[in-house]
Amino acid sequence: MLATFLLASFCQHGAVATAEPYATQASNYILQEGGNAIDAAITASFALAVTYPTAGNIGGGGFLLYREPEGLSWFLDFREVAPQAGHPKMYLDEDGELVEGASTRGWRAVGVPGSVFGMWEAHKLWGSLPWKSLLQPAIELAASGFPITEAEHKRLSRLRKTLGKDPYARRSFYKKDGFPKEVGSLLLQPELAITLRRIAKQGEKAFREGPIVKAIVEASVAGGGALAEEDFANYKPEFRPVQKIRWRDLTVLAATAPSSSGLFLSQTLGMLSQFSLGAWGWDDPRTVQILGEVEARAFSVRNRWLGDPEGFDFGVAALSHPTFIKKLGAGLSPNRFTRPLATNFPAPWESSETTHYSVVDSKGGAVSVTTTLNSGYGAKVMAPGGFMMNNEMDDFATKPGFANQFGLVQGKYNQVVPGRRPLSSMSPIIVLRNGQVDSVIGSPGGPTILTTVLQVFLNRYVFNMTPEKAVAAPRFHRQDLPPTLKYEANRLDSKTISRLRALGQPLQKIRKLGNVDAVFRDRDGEWIPVTDPRW
Ligand code: DON
Fold first, then answer.
1. Which architecture characterizes domain 241-332+426-523 according to CATH?
2. Which residues, in sequence order, are bridge partners of residue 21?
3. Which of 406, 420, 421 gets mutated to test ligand 1 (max ligand atoms within 8 A of its CB)?
4. Higher per-residue pLDDT: 340 or 364
Protein backbone atom coordinates (compact mmCIF):
# COMPACT_ATOMS: atom_id res chain seq x y z
CA MET A 1 0.00 0.00 0.00
CA LEU A 2 1.31 3.44 -0.86
CA ALA A 3 1.63 5.62 2.23
CA THR A 4 -1.04 8.37 2.23
CA PHE A 5 1.42 11.22 2.44
CA LEU A 6 3.08 10.14 -0.81
CA LEU A 7 -0.11 10.90 -2.75
CA ALA A 8 0.00 14.57 -1.83
CA SER A 9 0.85 17.19 -4.45
CA PHE A 10 3.12 20.07 -3.66
CA CYS A 11 3.09 23.82 -3.67
CA GLN A 12 5.04 26.31 -1.54
CA HIS A 13 3.94 26.01 2.08
CA GLY A 14 7.50 26.42 3.17
CA ALA A 15 10.45 24.20 2.36
CA VAL A 16 12.23 21.15 3.67
CA ALA A 17 15.62 19.58 3.04
CA THR A 18 16.51 16.22 4.57
CA ALA A 19 19.01 13.49 3.69
CA GLU A 20 16.32 11.07 2.51
CA PRO A 21 13.49 11.62 0.01
CA TYR A 22 10.68 9.80 1.89
CA ALA A 23 11.39 11.80 5.01
CA THR A 24 11.41 15.02 2.96
CA GLN A 25 8.10 14.11 1.40
CA ALA A 26 6.53 13.24 4.74
CA SER A 27 7.72 16.51 6.22
CA ASN A 28 6.47 18.52 3.23
CA TYR A 29 3.12 16.82 3.56
CA ILE A 30 2.81 18.08 7.13
CA LEU A 31 3.54 21.65 5.97
CA GLN A 32 0.92 21.26 3.32
CA GLU A 33 -1.60 20.05 5.88
CA GLY A 34 -1.15 23.39 7.66
CA GLY A 35 1.57 22.25 10.06
CA ASN A 36 4.28 24.67 11.15
CA ALA A 37 8.05 24.16 10.88
CA ILE A 38 8.16 22.38 14.26
CA ASP A 39 5.43 19.93 13.22
CA ALA A 40 7.24 19.24 9.96
CA ALA A 41 10.57 18.78 11.77
CA ILE A 42 9.06 16.25 14.18
CA THR A 43 7.67 14.28 11.26
CA ALA A 44 11.03 14.39 9.47
CA SER A 45 12.74 13.17 12.62
CA PHE A 46 10.57 10.09 13.09
CA ALA A 47 10.50 9.34 9.36
CA LEU A 48 14.30 9.44 9.22
CA ALA A 49 14.42 6.94 12.11
CA VAL A 50 12.64 4.55 9.75
CA THR A 51 14.08 5.35 6.32
CA TYR A 52 17.62 6.39 7.28
CA PRO A 53 18.53 4.07 10.14
CA THR A 54 22.25 4.80 9.87
CA ALA A 55 21.66 8.20 11.50
CA GLY A 56 17.94 9.01 11.79
CA ASN A 57 16.93 7.85 15.20
CA ILE A 58 14.86 7.45 18.28
CA GLY A 59 17.78 5.78 20.06
CA GLY A 60 20.09 8.81 19.79
CA GLY A 61 19.97 12.53 20.41
CA GLY A 62 20.50 15.91 18.82
CA PHE A 63 20.14 19.68 18.77
CA LEU A 64 17.16 21.70 17.62
CA LEU A 65 17.41 25.38 16.86
CA TYR A 66 14.11 27.18 16.39
CA ARG A 67 13.37 30.68 15.26
CA GLU A 68 9.74 31.54 15.90
CA PRO A 69 7.84 33.65 13.33
CA GLU A 70 7.60 36.33 16.05
CA GLY A 71 11.38 36.53 16.23
CA LEU A 72 12.28 34.65 19.41
CA SER A 73 14.91 31.97 19.01
CA TRP A 74 15.53 28.82 21.04
CA PHE A 75 18.08 26.09 21.35
CA LEU A 76 16.67 22.77 22.58
CA ASP A 77 19.36 20.26 23.53
CA PHE A 78 18.17 16.64 23.50
CA ARG A 79 21.61 15.07 23.37
CA GLU A 80 22.33 11.76 25.09
CA VAL A 81 23.59 11.82 28.68
CA ALA A 82 25.96 9.47 30.50
CA PRO A 83 24.02 6.87 32.51
CA GLN A 84 24.05 7.10 36.33
CA ALA A 85 26.36 4.10 36.38
CA GLY A 86 28.85 5.90 34.12
CA HIS A 87 32.19 7.23 35.41
CA PRO A 88 35.36 8.82 34.01
CA LYS A 89 37.25 5.55 33.86
CA MET A 90 34.53 3.34 32.46
CA TYR A 91 36.41 2.70 29.21
CA LEU A 92 39.82 2.00 30.78
CA ASP A 93 41.29 -1.33 31.90
CA GLU A 94 43.12 -1.92 35.21
CA ASP A 95 46.30 -0.46 33.74
CA GLY A 96 44.50 2.71 32.74
CA GLU A 97 44.61 1.82 29.05
CA LEU A 98 41.65 2.41 26.75
CA VAL A 99 39.78 -0.83 26.05
CA GLU A 100 39.58 -0.93 22.31
CA GLY A 101 36.08 -0.53 20.92
CA ALA A 102 34.44 -0.27 24.36
CA SER A 103 33.15 3.27 23.76
CA THR A 104 32.19 2.68 20.13
CA ARG A 105 30.67 -0.78 19.81
CA GLY A 106 28.15 -2.70 21.89
CA TRP A 107 25.84 -1.72 24.71
CA ARG A 108 28.54 -0.18 26.91
CA ALA A 109 28.96 2.57 24.32
CA VAL A 110 25.32 3.67 24.58
CA GLY A 111 24.28 6.94 26.21
CA VAL A 112 20.74 7.63 27.46
CA PRO A 113 18.87 8.63 24.30
CA GLY A 114 17.09 12.01 24.18
CA SER A 115 15.39 12.14 20.78
CA VAL A 116 11.86 11.18 21.81
CA PHE A 117 12.00 13.57 24.78
CA GLY A 118 13.29 16.38 22.58
CA MET A 119 10.61 15.96 19.96
CA TRP A 120 7.93 15.78 22.63
CA GLU A 121 9.20 18.95 24.31
CA ALA A 122 9.22 20.81 20.97
CA HIS A 123 5.70 19.58 20.24
CA LYS A 124 4.34 20.66 23.61
CA LEU A 125 5.81 24.13 23.38
CA TRP A 126 5.50 25.03 19.73
CA GLY A 127 3.62 22.34 17.78
CA SER A 128 0.29 23.03 16.13
CA LEU A 129 -0.93 19.64 14.79
CA PRO A 130 -1.80 16.60 16.91
CA TRP A 131 1.22 14.52 17.95
CA LYS A 132 -0.27 11.33 16.54
CA SER A 133 -0.64 12.80 13.06
CA LEU A 134 3.06 13.76 13.07
CA LEU A 135 4.14 10.16 13.61
CA GLN A 136 1.69 8.68 11.12
CA PRO A 137 4.02 8.86 8.07
CA ALA A 138 6.80 7.12 10.03
CA ILE A 139 4.41 4.42 11.18
CA GLU A 140 3.23 3.83 7.60
CA LEU A 141 6.80 3.68 6.32
CA ALA A 142 7.79 1.16 8.99
CA ALA A 143 4.67 -0.99 8.59
CA SER A 144 4.23 -0.88 4.79
CA GLY A 145 7.90 -0.64 3.94
CA PHE A 146 9.88 1.25 1.32
CA PRO A 147 12.43 0.08 -1.23
CA ILE A 148 15.99 -0.39 -0.02
CA THR A 149 18.32 1.98 -1.84
CA GLU A 150 21.69 1.11 -3.22
CA ALA A 151 23.37 3.40 -0.71
CA GLU A 152 21.62 1.70 2.21
CA HIS A 153 22.52 -1.69 0.81
CA LYS A 154 26.17 -0.70 0.56
CA ARG A 155 26.24 0.57 4.13
CA LEU A 156 24.65 -2.66 5.38
CA SER A 157 27.08 -4.77 3.34
CA ARG A 158 30.04 -2.97 4.85
CA LEU A 159 28.76 -3.69 8.35
CA ARG A 160 27.84 -7.34 7.87
CA LYS A 161 30.43 -8.45 10.41
CA THR A 162 29.37 -6.02 13.14
CA LEU A 163 25.79 -4.79 12.71
CA GLY A 164 24.88 -8.06 10.98
CA LYS A 165 25.81 -9.97 14.13
CA ASP A 166 23.29 -8.19 16.33
CA PRO A 167 20.23 -10.45 16.54
CA TYR A 168 17.62 -7.71 16.12
CA ALA A 169 19.48 -5.75 13.44
CA ARG A 170 20.08 -8.97 11.58
CA ARG A 171 16.35 -9.72 11.58
CA SER A 172 15.51 -6.20 10.32
CA PHE A 173 18.15 -5.61 7.68
CA TYR A 174 19.70 -8.92 6.64
CA LYS A 175 18.58 -12.12 4.91
CA LYS A 176 19.00 -15.61 6.35
CA ASP A 177 22.33 -15.98 4.52
CA GLY A 178 23.70 -12.98 6.41
CA PHE A 179 23.78 -10.63 3.40
CA PRO A 180 21.67 -7.43 3.38
CA LYS A 181 18.19 -7.51 1.92
CA GLU A 182 18.26 -6.78 -1.81
CA VAL A 183 18.29 -3.32 -3.39
CA GLY A 184 14.70 -2.44 -4.35
CA SER A 185 13.10 -4.98 -1.99
CA LEU A 186 10.76 -3.56 0.64
CA LEU A 187 12.28 -2.89 4.03
CA LEU A 188 9.52 -3.82 6.47
CA GLN A 189 10.10 -2.96 10.13
CA PRO A 190 7.13 -4.34 12.09
CA GLU A 191 8.79 -4.05 15.53
CA LEU A 192 9.64 -0.45 14.84
CA ALA A 193 6.05 0.20 13.73
CA ILE A 194 4.82 -1.13 17.09
CA THR A 195 7.30 1.09 18.95
CA LEU A 196 6.24 4.15 16.94
CA ARG A 197 2.54 3.43 17.52
CA ARG A 198 3.23 3.32 21.22
CA ILE A 199 5.08 6.64 21.08
CA ALA A 200 2.24 8.09 18.98
CA LYS A 201 -0.28 7.02 21.60
CA GLN A 202 1.61 7.79 24.80
CA GLY A 203 4.00 10.57 23.82
CA GLU A 204 7.25 10.73 25.78
CA LYS A 205 5.77 8.48 28.49
CA ALA A 206 6.50 5.55 26.21
CA PHE A 207 10.22 6.29 26.72
CA ARG A 208 10.03 7.07 30.45
CA GLU A 209 8.77 3.68 31.63
CA GLY A 210 7.05 0.56 30.42
CA PRO A 211 7.85 -2.13 27.86
CA ILE A 212 10.12 -0.13 25.51
CA VAL A 213 12.37 0.97 28.37
CA LYS A 214 12.34 -2.41 30.08
CA ALA A 215 13.38 -4.14 26.85
CA ILE A 216 16.22 -1.65 26.24
CA VAL A 217 17.54 -2.04 29.79
CA GLU A 218 17.34 -5.82 29.66
CA ALA A 219 19.30 -5.90 26.41
CA SER A 220 21.80 -3.41 27.83
CA VAL A 221 22.38 -5.44 31.01
CA ALA A 222 22.78 -8.62 28.97
CA GLY A 223 25.27 -6.83 26.73
CA GLY A 224 27.37 -5.37 29.57
CA GLY A 225 25.93 -1.87 29.19
CA ALA A 226 25.33 0.74 31.87
CA LEU A 227 21.71 1.82 31.20
CA ALA A 228 19.11 1.57 33.96
CA GLU A 229 15.38 2.30 34.00
CA GLU A 230 15.92 5.42 36.16
CA ASP A 231 18.10 6.92 33.42
CA PHE A 232 15.03 7.10 31.20
CA ALA A 233 12.76 8.33 34.00
CA ASN A 234 15.23 11.13 34.81
CA TYR A 235 16.29 12.32 31.32
CA LYS A 236 15.67 16.04 30.73
CA PRO A 237 15.91 17.91 27.45
CA GLU A 238 17.54 21.27 28.21
CA PHE A 239 17.06 24.78 26.88
CA ARG A 240 20.41 26.44 26.31
CA PRO A 241 21.34 29.96 25.29
CA VAL A 242 21.35 30.66 21.54
CA GLN A 243 24.65 32.13 20.42
CA LYS A 244 24.06 35.19 18.23
CA ILE A 245 27.00 36.03 16.01
CA ARG A 246 26.98 39.26 14.02
CA TRP A 247 28.68 39.13 10.68
CA ARG A 248 28.36 42.25 8.52
CA ASP A 249 24.60 42.68 7.95
CA LEU A 250 23.83 39.13 9.08
CA THR A 251 23.16 37.42 12.39
CA VAL A 252 24.02 33.75 12.75
CA LEU A 253 22.00 31.85 15.35
CA ALA A 254 23.97 28.88 16.65
CA ALA A 255 24.05 26.29 19.42
CA THR A 256 26.05 26.68 22.64
CA ALA A 257 27.68 23.99 24.83
CA PRO A 258 27.50 21.04 24.82
CA SER A 259 27.69 21.99 21.14
CA SER A 260 30.96 23.60 20.11
CA SER A 261 29.27 25.20 17.12
CA GLY A 262 28.51 28.70 18.45
CA LEU A 263 31.98 29.14 19.90
CA PHE A 264 33.66 27.76 16.79
CA LEU A 265 31.72 30.05 14.44
CA SER A 266 32.18 33.14 16.58
CA GLN A 267 35.92 32.52 16.83
CA THR A 268 36.52 31.62 13.19
CA LEU A 269 34.37 34.44 11.82
CA GLY A 270 35.92 36.81 14.35
CA MET A 271 39.49 35.87 13.34
CA LEU A 272 38.59 36.02 9.64
CA SER A 273 37.32 39.57 9.89
CA GLN A 274 40.93 40.89 9.71
CA PHE A 275 41.33 39.41 6.18
CA SER A 276 39.63 40.14 2.87
CA LEU A 277 38.71 36.65 1.77
CA GLY A 278 36.10 37.99 -0.64
CA ALA A 279 38.70 40.08 -2.45
CA TRP A 280 41.27 37.27 -2.49
CA GLY A 281 38.72 34.80 -3.91
CA TRP A 282 37.51 31.31 -3.00
CA ASP A 283 40.41 29.40 -4.56
CA ASP A 284 43.25 31.75 -3.69
CA PRO A 285 46.04 29.97 -1.74
CA ARG A 286 45.86 32.70 0.92
CA THR A 287 42.15 32.00 1.50
CA VAL A 288 42.78 28.28 1.99
CA GLN A 289 45.77 28.84 4.25
CA ILE A 290 44.08 31.38 6.52
CA LEU A 291 40.85 29.42 6.69
CA GLY A 292 42.77 26.28 7.65
CA GLU A 293 44.66 28.19 10.35
CA VAL A 294 41.57 29.71 11.96
CA GLU A 295 39.82 26.35 11.89
CA ALA A 296 42.73 24.70 13.69
CA ARG A 297 43.00 27.45 16.31
CA ALA A 298 39.29 27.36 17.09
CA PHE A 299 39.50 23.56 17.42
CA SER A 300 42.32 23.84 19.94
CA VAL A 301 40.07 25.95 22.20
CA ARG A 302 37.09 23.66 21.65
CA ASN A 303 38.98 20.54 22.56
CA ARG A 304 40.63 21.93 25.64
CA TRP A 305 37.85 23.93 27.23
CA LEU A 306 34.45 22.65 26.22
CA GLY A 307 32.09 19.99 27.52
CA ASP A 308 28.75 19.86 29.28
CA PRO A 309 28.12 23.41 30.59
CA GLU A 310 27.34 22.02 34.05
CA GLY A 311 30.98 21.03 34.34
CA PHE A 312 32.43 24.50 33.68
CA ASP A 313 34.06 26.23 36.55
CA PHE A 314 35.16 29.24 34.52
CA GLY A 315 33.46 31.94 32.45
CA VAL A 316 33.02 30.25 29.11
CA ALA A 317 31.55 33.48 27.66
CA ALA A 318 35.10 34.89 27.73
CA LEU A 319 36.09 32.50 24.98
CA SER A 320 33.91 34.28 22.44
CA HIS A 321 34.78 37.76 23.69
CA PRO A 322 36.45 39.96 21.02
CA THR A 323 39.54 40.38 23.22
CA PHE A 324 40.04 36.63 23.47
CA ILE A 325 39.39 36.16 19.75
CA LYS A 326 41.95 38.84 18.98
CA LYS A 327 44.55 36.98 21.03
CA LEU A 328 43.59 33.69 19.42
CA GLY A 329 44.07 35.23 15.98
CA ALA A 330 47.42 36.87 16.84
CA GLY A 331 50.19 36.13 14.36
CA LEU A 332 47.90 34.69 11.70
CA SER A 333 49.48 35.01 8.32
CA PRO A 334 48.82 33.58 4.87
CA ASN A 335 52.53 32.79 4.86
CA ARG A 336 52.79 30.73 8.02
CA PHE A 337 51.61 27.25 8.97
CA THR A 338 51.20 26.86 12.74
CA ARG A 339 52.19 23.39 13.86
CA PRO A 340 50.14 22.02 16.78
CA LEU A 341 52.00 21.20 19.97
CA ALA A 342 51.49 17.44 20.20
CA THR A 343 52.18 15.26 17.20
CA ASN A 344 51.52 11.76 18.46
CA PHE A 345 48.00 10.74 17.47
CA PRO A 346 46.28 7.86 15.71
CA ALA A 347 44.68 8.47 12.31
CA PRO A 348 40.98 9.20 12.72
CA TRP A 349 38.38 6.84 11.44
CA GLU A 350 36.35 8.29 8.59
CA SER A 351 32.59 8.29 8.56
CA SER A 352 29.78 10.50 7.38
CA GLU A 353 26.87 9.51 9.50
CA THR A 354 24.62 11.77 11.58
CA THR A 355 21.98 13.70 9.73
CA HIS A 356 20.73 17.25 9.44
CA TYR A 357 17.39 18.62 8.29
CA SER A 358 16.23 22.16 7.66
CA VAL A 359 12.63 23.37 7.59
CA VAL A 360 10.96 26.75 7.01
CA ASP A 361 7.22 27.39 7.09
CA SER A 362 5.09 29.99 5.33
CA LYS A 363 4.73 32.11 8.49
CA GLY A 364 8.44 32.74 8.93
CA GLY A 365 9.25 29.94 11.37
CA ALA A 366 12.52 28.04 10.82
CA VAL A 367 13.91 24.86 12.36
CA SER A 368 17.46 23.56 12.07
CA VAL A 369 18.05 20.08 13.52
CA THR A 370 21.14 17.90 13.60
CA THR A 371 20.59 14.47 15.10
CA THR A 372 22.76 11.43 15.43
CA LEU A 373 23.59 7.96 16.67
CA ASN A 374 27.23 9.13 16.44
CA SER A 375 28.76 6.41 14.22
CA GLY A 376 26.69 4.91 11.40
CA TYR A 377 24.01 2.72 13.05
CA GLY A 378 25.44 3.90 16.37
CA ALA A 379 26.83 1.18 18.63
CA LYS A 380 25.72 -1.45 16.06
CA VAL A 381 23.17 -2.77 18.54
CA MET A 382 19.44 -2.65 17.97
CA ALA A 383 16.90 -2.35 20.78
CA PRO A 384 14.32 -5.13 20.82
CA GLY A 385 11.79 -2.47 19.73
CA GLY A 386 13.44 -2.32 16.30
CA PHE A 387 15.60 0.83 16.48
CA MET A 388 19.34 1.45 16.60
CA MET A 389 21.12 2.63 19.74
CA ASN A 390 23.76 5.39 19.76
CA ASN A 391 27.45 5.17 20.66
CA GLU A 392 27.57 8.78 21.79
CA MET A 393 29.70 7.88 24.83
CA ASP A 394 32.72 8.01 22.51
CA ASP A 395 32.25 11.78 22.22
CA PHE A 396 33.40 12.09 25.83
CA ALA A 397 37.13 12.29 26.46
CA THR A 398 37.29 8.61 27.42
CA LYS A 399 40.95 9.15 28.26
CA PRO A 400 41.87 12.84 28.27
CA GLY A 401 44.76 13.56 25.96
CA PHE A 402 44.04 10.57 23.72
CA ALA A 403 42.23 10.73 20.40
CA ASN A 404 38.68 9.46 19.92
CA GLN A 405 37.37 7.91 16.69
CA PHE A 406 37.45 11.33 14.97
CA GLY A 407 41.02 12.01 16.02
CA LEU A 408 39.75 14.59 18.52
CA VAL A 409 42.01 14.96 21.52
CA GLN A 410 39.79 16.41 24.23
CA GLY A 411 40.18 17.45 27.83
CA LYS A 412 39.07 17.26 31.42
CA TYR A 413 35.88 19.27 30.97
CA ASN A 414 34.58 16.52 28.72
CA GLN A 415 35.03 13.49 30.94
CA VAL A 416 32.26 10.96 31.59
CA VAL A 417 30.15 12.17 34.52
CA PRO A 418 26.71 10.63 35.18
CA GLY A 419 23.91 12.78 33.77
CA ARG A 420 26.23 14.94 31.69
CA ARG A 421 26.35 15.31 27.92
CA PRO A 422 29.45 14.74 25.80
CA LEU A 423 30.87 17.63 23.80
CA SER A 424 29.54 17.79 20.24
CA SER A 425 30.44 19.26 16.88
CA MET A 426 26.86 19.27 15.64
CA SER A 427 26.16 22.66 14.22
CA PRO A 428 22.61 23.50 13.22
CA ILE A 429 22.48 27.20 12.26
CA ILE A 430 19.91 29.76 11.13
CA VAL A 431 21.10 32.90 9.35
CA LEU A 432 19.10 36.13 9.59
CA ARG A 433 19.23 39.12 7.31
CA ASN A 434 17.36 42.27 8.37
CA GLY A 435 15.67 40.24 11.08
CA GLN A 436 14.30 37.67 8.62
CA VAL A 437 15.39 34.09 8.15
CA ASP A 438 17.71 33.92 5.14
CA SER A 439 19.00 30.35 5.41
CA VAL A 440 18.95 27.22 7.54
CA ILE A 441 22.12 25.11 7.32
CA GLY A 442 23.64 21.97 8.85
CA SER A 443 25.55 18.77 8.11
CA PRO A 444 26.83 15.47 9.50
CA GLY A 445 30.55 14.65 9.60
CA GLY A 446 31.85 14.56 13.19
CA PRO A 447 34.34 17.41 13.61
CA THR A 448 34.11 18.18 9.88
CA ILE A 449 30.57 19.40 10.56
CA LEU A 450 32.03 22.60 11.99
CA THR A 451 34.23 23.37 9.02
CA THR A 452 31.58 22.26 6.52
CA VAL A 453 28.96 24.61 7.95
CA LEU A 454 31.48 27.46 8.15
CA GLN A 455 32.49 26.97 4.51
CA VAL A 456 28.91 26.76 3.19
CA PHE A 457 28.19 29.99 5.07
CA LEU A 458 31.26 31.70 3.57
CA ASN A 459 30.44 30.36 0.10
CA ARG A 460 27.01 31.92 0.24
CA TYR A 461 27.71 35.16 2.06
CA VAL A 462 31.32 36.04 1.27
CA PHE A 463 31.90 34.42 -2.11
CA ASN A 464 28.28 35.11 -3.20
CA MET A 465 27.62 31.66 -4.60
CA THR A 466 24.12 30.48 -5.52
CA PRO A 467 22.50 28.18 -2.93
CA GLU A 468 23.23 25.09 -5.02
CA LYS A 469 26.84 26.08 -5.64
CA ALA A 470 27.40 27.04 -2.00
CA VAL A 471 26.54 23.47 -0.99
CA ALA A 472 28.13 21.66 -3.94
CA ALA A 473 31.47 23.51 -3.93
CA PRO A 474 34.29 21.21 -2.76
CA ARG A 475 35.45 21.69 0.81
CA PHE A 476 38.43 21.09 3.06
CA HIS A 477 38.94 20.49 6.76
CA ARG A 478 41.54 21.22 9.39
CA GLN A 479 41.32 20.59 13.13
CA ASP A 480 43.93 21.11 15.81
CA LEU A 481 45.13 17.50 15.82
CA PRO A 482 45.96 15.87 13.49
CA PRO A 483 47.48 18.89 11.68
CA THR A 484 46.65 17.47 8.25
CA LEU A 485 44.49 19.55 5.93
CA LYS A 486 42.02 17.18 4.28
CA TYR A 487 40.52 18.25 1.00
CA GLU A 488 38.04 17.09 -1.59
CA ALA A 489 38.95 16.84 -5.29
CA ASN A 490 38.94 20.22 -7.05
CA ARG A 491 39.15 22.24 -3.85
CA LEU A 492 42.87 23.00 -4.13
CA ASP A 493 44.48 23.79 -7.45
CA SER A 494 48.10 22.85 -8.10
CA LYS A 495 49.30 26.35 -7.19
CA THR A 496 47.61 26.12 -3.79
CA ILE A 497 48.93 22.61 -3.18
CA SER A 498 52.51 23.72 -3.88
CA ARG A 499 52.11 26.80 -1.74
CA LEU A 500 50.71 24.87 1.24
CA ARG A 501 53.38 22.20 0.93
CA ALA A 502 56.06 24.86 0.89
CA LEU A 503 54.68 26.20 4.18
CA GLY A 504 54.91 22.72 5.72
CA GLN A 505 51.20 21.95 5.72
CA PRO A 506 50.52 18.16 5.57
CA LEU A 507 47.80 17.42 3.01
CA GLN A 508 45.46 14.52 2.42
CA LYS A 509 42.93 14.15 -0.36
CA ILE A 510 39.69 12.51 0.78
CA ARG A 511 36.50 11.48 -0.97
CA LYS A 512 33.76 13.51 0.72
CA LEU A 513 33.27 15.99 3.51
CA GLY A 514 29.81 16.44 5.01
CA ASN A 515 26.31 16.00 3.67
CA VAL A 516 24.55 19.35 3.83
CA ASP A 517 20.78 19.78 3.88
CA ALA A 518 19.93 23.44 3.78
CA VAL A 519 17.24 25.92 2.79
CA PHE A 520 18.12 29.34 1.37
CA ARG A 521 16.06 32.37 0.45
CA ASP A 522 16.86 33.45 -3.10
CA ARG A 523 16.87 37.02 -4.42
CA ASP A 524 13.11 36.87 -5.17
CA GLY A 525 12.30 35.70 -1.68
CA GLU A 526 11.55 32.11 -2.80
CA TRP A 527 12.77 29.23 -0.63
CA ILE A 528 15.34 26.95 -2.23
CA PRO A 529 15.83 23.60 -0.47
CA VAL A 530 19.26 22.16 -1.30
CA THR A 531 20.42 18.62 -0.64
CA ASP A 532 24.08 17.77 -0.99
CA PRO A 533 24.95 16.37 -4.44
CA ARG A 534 27.77 14.34 -2.84
CA TRP A 535 25.34 11.66 -1.60
O1 DON B 1 28.08 15.13 18.21
C2 DON B 1 29.06 14.95 17.50
O3 DON B 1 29.91 15.78 17.30
C4 DON B 1 29.23 13.61 16.83
N5 DON B 1 28.56 12.61 17.60
C6 DON B 1 28.72 13.67 15.44
C7 DON B 1 28.98 12.38 14.74
C8 DON B 1 28.92 12.45 13.30
O9 DON B 1 28.64 13.45 12.71
C10 DON B 1 29.23 11.18 12.61
N11 DON B 1 29.59 11.43 11.28
N12 DON B 1 30.66 11.49 10.84
1. Orthogonal Bundle (1.10)
2. none
3. 406
4. 364
